[in-house]
Write a structure and sequence with these properties.
By secondary structure, this protein is α/β, with parallel strands linked by helices. 29% of the residues lie in helices and 13% in strands. It has 6 helices and 6 strands. The chain has helices spanning 26-38, 63-70, 84-88, 113-117, 131-140, 145-154; strands at residues 17-20, 51-53, 78-82, 94-98, 123-126, 159-160. Strands 2-1-3-4-5-6 form a 6-stranded mixed β-sheet, with helices on both faces. Strand 1, helix 1 and strand 2 form a beta-alpha-beta unit. The chain is globular and about 35 Å long.
Length: 178
């Protein structure tokens, strides 16, 4: 890890963890936070709030670094990053990272060669109104992370959406970089 990241202390394991890793656009971050808040209004108000981490020490943190820091929380199954793509896309898709993806490191290669040779996907884009749905299903182990990756692959924008939520504005996801 390139730098020591602060410990994340969550009071509620049912609150999805969203870490801001891009500080280039405060207005886009505000829209992302507002979209996350709208996702728990009305009928869905019974769902837990989102645990937001907005600390400049996370600025520029990679997915691997965030996973290493998040893995300290044994109750956490997924972490969501508000990264450059989140800030540049009108969909505000967060990068969901499967915290349990490295659970197969200690597998016996004789018996699990196929799994070890083609590891499951560990990241997928999720629109804000689907964050609670993804987090809840992964916490309960109702759905495998790979199923959300398949859903995103079938989506024209490459993102997981909550089919019970109001549709988000369409738009292609930008590619990070210069």
């Amino acid at each position: 890890m390139r730098k020591e990241l602060p410990e994340i202390v969550r009071a509620d394991e049912w609150a999805p963890l969203v870490i801001r890793t891009d500080y280039t656009d405060d207005a886009a971050w505000g829209e992302t936070v507002a979209a996350l808040a709208r996702a728990v209004e009305g009928e869905r108000a019974r769902e837990a709030a989102v645990h937001l981490v907005e600390d400049r020490r996370w600025d520029g943190v990679t997915g691997d670094e965030a996973l290493a820091a998040a893995a300290r929380d044994e109750e956490l199954s997924v972490v969501f990053l508000a990264d450059e793509v989140t800030m540049r896309s009108s969909l505000r898709p967060l990068l969901a990272l499967d915290v349990g993806a490295d659970d197969d490191e200690d597998l016996d290669p004789v018996y699990y060669q196929e799994l070890i040779g083609s590891p499951p996907p560990r990241e997928v884009r999720v629109v804000p109104d689907a964050v609670h749905m993804v987090h809840g299903n992964l916490q309960l182990a109702n759905v495998d992370f790979a199923e959300f990756v398949e859903d995103a692959a079938a989506d024209p924008d490459g993102a997981v959406r909550d089919v019970t939520a109001a549709p988000a504005s369409p738009g292609p996801l930008p590619h990070p970089g210069p």
